[in-house]
TrEMBL record:
Compartment list: Cell membrane
Keyword Disulfide bond among UniProt keywords: no
PROSITE patterns: ABC_TRANSPORTER_1, ABC_TRANSPORTER_2
Record-given protein name: ABC transporter ATP-binding protein
Topology term for the membrane: Peripheral membrane protein
Source lineage: Bacteria, Bacillati, Actinomycetota, Actinomycetes, Streptosporangiales
Entry-linked SUPFAM superfamilies: P-loop containing nucleoside triphosphate hydrolases
GO function terms (MF aspect): ATP binding
Membrane-spanning intervals of the chain: none
Record's keyword terms, sorted: Antibiotic resistance, ATP-binding, Nucleotide-binding, Transport
Highest rank taxon of the organism: Bacteria
Residue stretches making up the ABC transporter domain: 5-228
Amino acid sequence: MTVLARASEVTRRYGDVLALDRVSLDIRAGELVGLLGPNGAGKSTLISLFAGLRRPSSGTVELLGGSPLDPARRRGIGVTPQETGLPETLRVGEIVDFVRAHFPEPLARAELLARFGLEDLARRQVGGLSGGQRRRLAVALAFVGRPRLVFLDEPTTGLDVEARRTLWDGIRSFHDEGGTVLLTSHYLEEIEALAERVVVVGHGRVLADDTVAAVRDVVGVRKVSLTAAGLPELPGVLSAERHDDGRVDLLTTDPDRLVVELVRSGAAFSGLEIRPTTLEEAFLTLTANPEEIAHV
Ligand SMILES: Nc1ncnc2c1ncn2[C@@H]1O[C@H](COP(=O)(O)OP(=O)(O)OP(=O)(O)O)[C@@H](O)[C@H]1O
């Protein structure tokens, strides 16, 4: 499959801060990739390198078969950074037209606005939009030029559930038509809802690069949930959380052993359930213990 963006052994420093540490990553045509990692992991830095906004300290970055610094290559991508500033006095439709003017075959204004649920706002000044409406507009603008590849840095931060779903639909329809997307998110449900592939970054390194299901399997953490008044110390518990209703959630990589030890301890319990962890739980485990998954 065609590689649209490639980072090879990329390191990026800001003074003494090592933001990316020998990162290698391919984004192939037609993929929808979720980039997941805690604050400061290096996600935004990686996007800025792919988009040609910064250069790596060492290693190489390719975009659409050439240098990301080449304006012709950059015209083939769309980017929405984490923060955007749009002129307050322009109307939504005017901004869309302004951006459209930079591309040879832009999407029609009405089509773009409809895709992102903005059709009723075309005549509204940007200064009068809510934060969520501005964010939807900023994301929509990445799609104006019919890009081959779109980079979205936390596209739905600050959006309510409905606005988030509208944006997801817009991103999905682009992907369904063959578009390629790399998005970062702190909303783990967003990665699960949209992405087929998840790249987990932490401390400037790629910790895992696989399907959402495989990343969960790599971690292999299961949640053992039960109701008990009190529990003895049990082996292999990564974390324990007690809820107000008396239920206790225990995270472990070896639920069989945990249950055997629980029964052996003679502690009274009821309502035992064992289930896979959510991506969020897997993610927290991955980023908390990078040395444990160095083999991934
Ligand atoms: N311009 C800069 N000058 C100095 N340090 C920077 C700069 N930009 C980023 N950093 C540092 O580089 C590291 C990676 O930052 P980056 O913004 O890429 O992380 P991130 O994963 O996008 O985080 P977040 O989820 O908070 O957006 C952090 O330690 C950050 O403080």
